[in-house]
Amino acid sequence: MNILDKIIVDKQREVVLKKSIIPISQLESSVFFGRETISLSQKLKASSTGIIAEHKRRSPSKSVINHGFTVEEVVKGYEDAGACGISVLTDGKYFGGSLDDLLLARASVNIPLLRKEFIVDEYQILEAKAHGADLILLIAAVLTHEEIKSLSEFAKKLGLEVLLEVHNQEELEKSIMPSLDMIGVNNRNLKTFEVSLDFSKELASQIPDEFVKVSESGISSVEAIQELKPYGYKGFLIGENFMKTDNAGQAATEFINQL
Hints:
Layout: H1 3-21, H2 24-28, H3 40-46, E1 51-55, E2 58-59, E3 63-64, H4 71-81, E4 85-89, H5 99-108, E5 113-116, H6 122-130, E6 135-139, H7 145-157, E7 161-166, H8 169-175, E8 182-186, H9 198-204, E9 212-216, H10 222-228, E10 233-238, H11 240-243, H12 248-258
Parallel strand pairs: 1-4, 1-10, 4-5, 5-6, 6-7, 7-8, 8-9, 9-10
Antiparallel strand pairs: 2-3
Helix pairs in contact: 4-5, 4-12
């Protein structure tokens, strides 16, 4: 069993527990549930830089990245830097995140927020909406074609955008459908953790033009982005590169200015 399989098993148990404690009606009565969401796909299309900056404390591959910042400091720094959107990791066990991080981020900034999570159930999409997210992530590696379809359509009904993450040709082919807004290529193999920009380059021509193309993981230089732009990528998700510094917002500002 690889790390991704373990995460999904834990996530399914976690969702069952959460459902038993917090009813859907409570999520639907959240102050954020009725708010109009902000479109990340539109912002990426209009941007010359396309940075989606990530709040991430740790990861299975790197253990601790940074526990020194408050969520507010990080996300405000990202917004001031000119990021198009912010990805907030909400998984607790493997990434040290929580839904409270999403809530605090929403209270602090006015740009699109992605709930970065291993989504296996509609309940998690309701949670995302209730905690102020504008879009959700679906990971093709852990979902069937039918699950991607039903979860993405459910998200769209709630007014949330959908970023679908793929890693290879097979995942892409089973996933292309009208209920997606953005297709992200993860440059990190979630099973082995090896990183290569070649994954983004190889899949670029297979992604239909109606979807905004996003490259995720392993982007640590301005050169990497300049290398990927000719392939049609409009969004670049960067987390570790900013979070591992003493000032994530400052690091993002310098990076975006260089671009």
